[in-house]
Amino acid sequence: MLTNVPTDLLRAFVTVVDLGSYTKAAEVLGRTQPAVSLQIRRLEDLLRTRLLNTEAKQVRLTAAGVELGPYARQMLRLNDDIVAHFANETLSGWIRVGLPTDFSNTFLLNAITRFAANHPDVRIEVESQLSHRLRHELAADHLNIAVGIAPAGEDIYLVNSAVIRPLWAVSETFRWEKHLPLRIVRHPDPCEYAERMRAAMRGARRSWKTVLVTSDVAGIQSAVLAGLGASALTPATLAAGMRIGREDEGFPLLEPLRIGLFYKHARLSKAGHGLAQWLMEQINLAGQNPVP
Description:
It contains 9 helices and 12 strands. It is α/β, with parallel strands linked by helices. The protein has 3 domains: 7-83, Winged helix-like DNA-binding domain superfamily/Winged helix DNA-binding domain (Arc Repressor Mutant, subunit A, Orthogonal Bundle), CATH 1.10.10; 90-161 and 257-286, D-Maltodextrin-Binding Protein, domain 2 (3-Layer(aba) Sandwich), CATH 3.40.190; 167-249, 3-Layer(aba) Sandwich (D-Maltodextrin-Binding Protein, domain 2). It has a 5-stranded mixed β-sheet, with helices on both faces. The chain has a 3-stranded antiparallel β-sheet with strand order 10-7-11. Helix 1 packs across helix 2 (22-29) and helix 4 (63-87) crosses helix 9 (270-286).
């Protein structure tokens, strides 16, 4: 009966996936290509399933490999956190981080600022884009770490996630005349927040109209505060002067979403692992609001 999966086998698996090549994985792991291939076969034998296929020199995940990915990355993250905790090394180097537009000027940026202040030898470059673009930038190695909305299907670079319930945000003086369409302020499509607003309104059989579209969360906040309309925000992005639209006012409940932490283990430095651990703690704290 299987009771333990060696982390060295999981690291070999994740490294091959991250780099897309057994040969490149062998170089990073300090092993030969046949040795890495043997580790993958051992892992497949232990789990009794095929994890990777090689087609035209391209490494492809099987369905089982896709399922294993998040578990393997979480185990490696915990392993690396333990090692870093007891190593107590000074962190240094450049880290490129991608944040979604709705978190780029709120708690996550504040968290990164605190991390940088505690590690003066670490230099951090922050990029703000919509979540789907950040995942593409990470896949292309333009980012070391990305935080964003996790897609419905498991992303191969998803390490961990927290569930957050979006809320209807309106100005303190906003009143919805229910015989009129709800005025909505939103991000451009594709947008998980916008889709949740539309789905909730369709489910409640209520009408709405979009009055402003902007990719800037500050623009969303300004429009809401000015009373232009309602929008979906997270607890971390609610601003002073806003209140939450209630169900008894006619605002239907919005479906929760997952905020994910994405990175490639094989590409991440010790400083990157330190920042990733810190960001995951902040994401988990943000996800502690109740999800009915």
